[in-house]
Design brief:
This protein has about 250 residues and is an alpha+beta fold. It contains 8 helices and 12 strands. The strands form 3 sheets. It has a 7-stranded antiparallel β-sheet. The protein has a 3-stranded antiparallel β-sheet with strand order 4-11-10. A two-stranded antiparallel ribbon has the order 1-2. A hairpin with an 8-residue loop joins strand 8 and strand 9. The longest helix is centred in the last third of the chain and has 25 residues.
């Protein structure tokens, strides 16, 4: 990760956990790269317009809308179309901890993600970062994640409090015998009112939007890379996605 990306990890380092790789992953040959990001469209997900206030659980609605309406950083990315078993694709989004473990088994560095139970996931790092998140709303072919915590880019840097919302959309373009083609996109919104976050934005200057897009692209590749690998190597799926300590 270059120096610019490290600075911006203050804002995007723990965004909903899915982009929680210690370094931008060097993907296996069977995994395609991510597509360029598209401009953000507030309160939408994919090709279908979504009113977040209608789909987010009442307990989290105010918190989610406060992040989406006044983000410090927001961006959107769209991944190349992906062919995968529909049940497997949904399962991956429900088990980000096992996706992180799969990358480790593929020898790609990834920060461990913990299933804390009751739909809550978390990750920590050696610097003291800690982010927790959960699904707080669902809609047809999509879901909303809400994350809170702190990101500490290095041992000598201060912790930065963050709140983030990820709106994930994966509509099916075609399906047959349980296998579908998915067109997946994500919108990411992050709020941090710390001085360190504001300083990171000033240091990045014109580079900030592209760095944010790269974070969103990695978010999608975190899931799509494993989905693509499993679809192409079905006999390896059970071992790759097995719980910790089992293969």
């Amino acid at each position: 990760m270059n120096r610019t990306a490290k600075a911006f990890s203050v804002l995007l380092g723990g965004l909903a956990g899915g982009a929680a790789c210690a370094e931008p992953p060097a993907m296996p040959a069977a995994v395609p790269g991510a597509a360029p990001a598209a401009p953000a469209l507030p309160n939408t997900a994919g090709p279908v317009r979504v009113r977040l206030a209608d789909v987010v659980h009442a307990d989290y609605r105010d918190a989610v809308m406060s992040v989406v309406n006044k983000p410090t950083v927001s961006t959107k990315a769209t991944a190349p179309d992906l062919i995968c078993t529909a049940t497997m694709y949904e399962w991956l989004f429900d088990h980000p901890d096992r996706v992180a473990l799969a990358w480790q088994r593929l020898k790609v560095p990834a920060v461990p993600i913990t299933d804390a139970g009751n739909g809550l996931f978390s990750w920590t790092d050696e610097h003291g970062s800690e982010v927790v998140w959960r699904t707080v709303g669902t809609f047809r072919d999509g879901r909303v994640w809400y994350a809170t915590g702190k990101v500490k880019p290095g041992p000598a840097t201060p912790s930065v409090p963050v709140k983030a919302v990820a709106v994930l959309s994966h509509p099916q373009k075609a399906a047959k015998d349980g296998v579908a083609s998915f067109s997946t996109s994500v919108q990411l919104f992050l709020v941090s009112d710390s001085r360190a976050a504001n300083l990171a934005l000033r240091l990045l200057g014109p580079a900030a939007p592209r760095v944010a897009e790269q974070g969103a692209e990695q978010f999608l590749e975190f899931f799509n890379g494993v989905a693509n690998y499993v679809q192409k190597n079905p006999t390896k799926a059970d071992a790759l996605l097995a719980p910790p300590g089992k293969k």
